[in-house]
Protein 1
Amino acid sequence: MFWQQLVNGLTVGSTYSLIAIGYTLIFGVLGIINMAHGQIFIFGSLVGLVLITEADMPLGVAFLAAVVVSAILGLILEYTALRPLRKKNVPHLASLISTIGFAILVEEAMHKLFGADSRAVPVSLGSEMYDLGIVQVRGVDIIILAVSVVLMFVLHFWINRTKMGKAIRATAENNETASILGINTNMVIVTTVVIASALGGVAGCLIGLAYSALIPTMGLNLGFKGLAVLILGGVGSITGAMVCGIILGIAEVFSVAYGDSSYRDAVAFGLIILILLIRPQGLFGRKV
Amino acid sequence: MLEIRDVSTSYGQIKAIRSISLDVPQGKIVALIGANGAGKTTTMKTITGLLVPDSGTIHFEGRRVDGLKPHQLVKAGLALVPEGRAILGQMTVQENLEMGAFQRNDTAGIREDMEKMMSWFPILKERLNQLGGTLSGGQQQMLAIARALMSRPKLLLLDEPSMGLAPIVVSDIFKTIQEINREGTTVLIVEQNVKQALKIADYGYVLEAGQIVLSGTGQELLANERVKEAYLGGRKVQ
């Protein structure tokens, strides 16, 4: 039972990690929390789902479409809600509000286009069970875990080793310094927003597979979970987002398994409050 | 090489520099001196594109460059060593240097320049994998200069390179600046350390309350009564 729940927690948690990485990347270069992140990637994932149910597209195509649509929405967010405000040099709170506005628009668009009801994911992908001795794992759990972990490793390598990754870190540390070194910081910001949204799109698809359903309002809920992970891990820390997403996933699953499912969020968020009381800067955050 | 004509820049309502004109000829060292708040850093930020001037023109190598973005000016051949050094503290010394060469794609040339910086500043070689934030002030200043040189600039702009450094380190930094100039890089330096700056400068400008009030060769300015009085701790006129 314990090991079984641990695997479940890892699976759910790894998708939270992907969501939180999106927040932390954007916070890094822009210094704002993108309140539209959840809505953006659920929109993308719903487009993918509709392609499967209405147009009989194969899963691969739908997956790709979900990621691309999320990335494009991220791009639109940058050009309509973020860049115009940046040019005017307004306080960061203004762009926080404009992302909330964007979130509401995307949410309404989802209701209009896809309806407010839950949509079942008709994919029988990975429903077979694998017996690994102490645990039994669904094929889909293995897929989710593998995709998330591989993506996180690739991202970690990309951020730390490539020229573009280093430019993102330089911009995150100091926008002005990055620009006088010859880095086109606007280009870096566009790249970051697109990557963050695309990662969200992947997470949305994996969550759809895990729960076999997608609902437009999931964006808000999952967005809050991603935010909680962001704060828990330390704002701006990619490692923090990775590790703490998994911590939150495991905490949730265990509170359901050994407690009461209606206390799931209470236990998870209670744990976050407790950790923040001890380490206000987050588990991997730096003291300011 | 750099021609600034009647440039004014303001922060909101406050005019920080008013109708400044100055020239930096190729191959020379030009110093811009003045007290705190005279507008020195504003001038540097305007030249490097961090601030956009309200009026006036800036030409670099005959091409009009005011209004260009900072990264475009780096491409044009300008490099700034900013006030307070602005080292990327969460990145290693090596990564700081790599970022200095961001606009370049000649891997071999970059490696060659990296070697050159190591020989000019041996301390950086020892600290290559250390985070920039762990260096001392003097080491950070050397890193900031080396990082700016990694873009192979035609014109190097230095904003208060002596700030907060021990006198012995300051004279090292000034020697290095002269050496860089001898190798063919034109230099514009902004300083509060007037004596040191004018000693190495071919030409100097004095900035007061956002306006240029005096200019001349380094020697002329060093001998000037007004400069002596205001910046070199000379006697008060009886």
Protein 2
Amino acid sequence: MMKNSLVVAPSPHIHDAASVPHLMRDVVIALMPAFAVSVYRFGWGALYVAAVSVASCMLFEYLIQRFLLHRPSSLNDWSAVVTGLLLAFNVPSNLPPAILVFGALTAIGVGKMTFGGLGNNPFNPALVGRVVLLISFPVQMTTWPVPQGFSTGIFDATTGATALGILKESTGTVQEAMAQMPSYLDMLTGRMGGSMGETAAAALLLGFVYLLVRRVITWHIPVTIMATVAVFTGIFWMADSTQYASPLFHLLSGGLILGAVFMATDYVTSPMTHAGMVVYGIGIGLITVLIRMYGSYPEGMSFAILIMNAMVPLINLYIRPRRFGEEVKRG
Amino acid sequence: MTMVKTFPRGGVHPPACKITAESPIRTAPLPPEVIIPLSQHIGAPATPIVKAGDKVLAGQCIAEAGGFVSAPVHSSVSGTVVKVDTFPDVSGYRRPAVQIKVEDDVWVDTVDRTPDLVCASDLTPEEIIASVRSAGVVGMGGATFPLHVKLAVPPGKKAELLLVNAAECEPYLTCDHRVMLEHAAEVAAGVALLVRALQVERAVIGIESNKPDAIAAMSAAVAGRPGISVEPLRVKYPQGGEKQLIKAITGREVPPGGLPVDVGVVPCNVGTALAVYEAVLKHKPLVERIVTVTGPALAEPANWKVRIGTPFSWLVNLSGGMPEDTGKIISGGPMMGKAAPSLEVPVTKGTSGILLLPASQSLRRPASPCIRCGRCVTVCPMGLEPYLLSKLSALSRLDEAEQHHIADCIECGSCSYTCPSARPLLDYIRLGKAVVMKKLRLQGRK
Amino acid sequence: MNTILFTVATLTFTGLCAALILYFTSRRFFVEEDSRIDGVQEMLPGANCGGCGAAGCRAFAEQLVGADSMDGLRCPVGGDEVMKNIAAYLGREVQAGVPQVAVVRCNGTCENRPARQHYDGADRCAIAHALFVGAGGCAYGCLGCGDCVAACQFGALSMDAETGLPVVDASRCTACGACVKACPRGIVELRKKFPGNRQIYVSCVSHDKGAVARKICAAACIGCGKCQKTCTFEAITLENNVAWIDSTKCRLCRKCAEACPTHSIVERNFPARRPAPEAKPAAAATVGTPNQA
């Protein structure tokens, strides 16, 4: 811009303060309570997984932008940090580093950059990374450390099954399986086995409140997912409570809250309109419950989100905002 | 606590920045020279009836309406016509205008310039419309549509309600606010005249609830006038958008491509109501208006009562001079106003404000890729998909843009305002809309 | 054994059914099409630039095959050779067209017309044009956002960073006219292509009166009419305060360029002038500068 020359531009001449880096930073902040609980529960493992994942996601994004796409670095939009954190939240805290780096490469390289970078990816990059790891390294990805804080090393932690795993493996009634399980209080505060960041429901919900207050996301997607899961599992539970677990158990177990609040609400891969978001949320809820009950995997959140990600263009095509004045109402 | 009305869909909340809300209207001294554009309204430009060297009086007609959808133009000062030529307007393009050298301040003797309130007599609707037409009154909210055309309700349609727009949802602007505080009785009289001209039963004055003093003043002023009421509105941009205001107050939606009268409503701005009062009862043509001169760095921001044709530079100097670091001059508010290339631009009938933004607030943030967050869709008050329209328009896929109702856009700027990637959504939509509207007009089904 | 037989039988049956369905649908929905359309399309350049007026090469091929004569149908990209081939293929006559080249008629460089404002909207001339006169203050001149460059499919246009104006690479220009349509101010013109890409034209389209135009831009045509008087071939017309040289009448004598007081008449790709005894050297130097482009 030349010195002292006036600027001429089309209206509007002012702009909202919110920007992409702001929004992404807010997501990172919202993840912090859950991260703190994870560090408390899983000790060094949580720190190591988060550090490796975030660092490698940022590195891969930088390298791909620089050497393959020849574009200016997009690290300052913070999206790689979010992807890295979310990937870390979705893996066990004792995952071998090589596998984790491979996951980061898949998330950024395949999940995001192949499609042209931020804004163009049809699938949630962190989930692409997570699901590829889950299918490629099923053993390592389902060897869940038991929360022991800083008392053990990263890779020699005692391992156990997740709540949903116990439920899936059990042959008796739900009540028998429940006996081996963490209490609801443990589930809220993250005292159970599971992926690094998915266990502490209360901390995740705190992040949800923060995102709502900061208007980063709206309630539509998380609430519809949780409501659908609650209603759907509730029907089964009321029909036969010896065969099916309670809705509260389903809400608090696995990656449901993490997925509903942080993964399904990813801007790029969720619908544009609020009505579309509701449809999308219901879809995720239904698929998750179906996989949990009838699928061969104990947990179905990741798959449900990815499947509904694929439906988003269709949802955007059919669920459009209502045009002002379309039906003339006489008031 | 009563529920304040609003439009249900979309909208944004830009900071109000009403710096001049407490500043009383001041009468600006006359500039040495005025440039009065001949096209200050939508429609055909006025035809000049003066030539260089002619002596004119303030209030004298200097150009006649160039057609039905047009308005006459009056001299705002007394003096000598320097020339009738083209002069740059707010876009910098040269348009026909009359340049007048100011000498004294002599008015046409029919004009009543006393502050005394004249009460409505037994004028017929035709007489009121004729006065409005010959006084060159146009919509003063910014659209500058000739008022007599609006008052002539097309056959087959019926007006039921006069809606006076006093929302003033644009940040910074306070001219309507001050008019309501200082000229409430005159505005009420103007509204009564419009009610009579339209032969409607009811008139509602919609005011955003952040102006409680204006709501009180207007409520008191209309107390003795049956059928006229004041309605507080929620503070939300674009509350003052014609279609949004009608929706907020009546619950009716103007159909796409339709006019407010299709739902029985005739909207007009509060400044217009004042101009109607002056035109009809004081015989004063539209030669003056209130202009808010404001800006975060301006020394003395103020609301000025100015003659049409006064250069922006004159007003800015009266308000303390142009701040050193001024980066942008905006004619109107920051959401829908036009950036002017210089201060050598005359005030017209539609100039509601002059806003000087410092250089630090003048440049847009660099645009980054769309992250498909859907915020533009959420805030669009017209139920459009700005991200899609903008893309289609940029790619010149205008048939598809038309199918997605690009012609419905009211150019309020909420989408561009809210986009976290700072994409120039409205720039492209406006481009595509202009082409589509032209095509629709050619097809003769506007 | 039975299982295998059953599998083979059902698969064969399914395959047959599918084949029958495909066969009948393709018969049912078969579209009769002149086979020559494909032939003509093969001969066209395939750039789908729309320079012929049709939506693309296929549409143009359909037009060519459907038309009775070749009049008014011409592929500017392929030029005479392609049109001759197509005419021969379709058994018709064709007249040779005049080869053309795009010319940018604005010389509002940063020096001639310094920027007064900074345009901060979306980078499209059409948007800037609708908004205001442009940073240079000229209501007719180049806005410099490069809509013409974006419209060119042949890489013949590029923005000169120094002058802020688009430059035509005559060797690549196919005269498809996409840039002419893209320019919101009608600055780009298709002119007759002379040997050696020589070109002489009025590099200004301003309708402003002389004094106003001159104040805005040092290289503006002020409509003085001196060039018109010098021209011996009646190639120059003066309308709306701006001169225009008809390239079909111009004989490239360059007298008009010498006469122009603002040097708004530009000559390109001519050999250097012989130092005329009485010609002002300064003027010659200024006129000569655009040669490098």
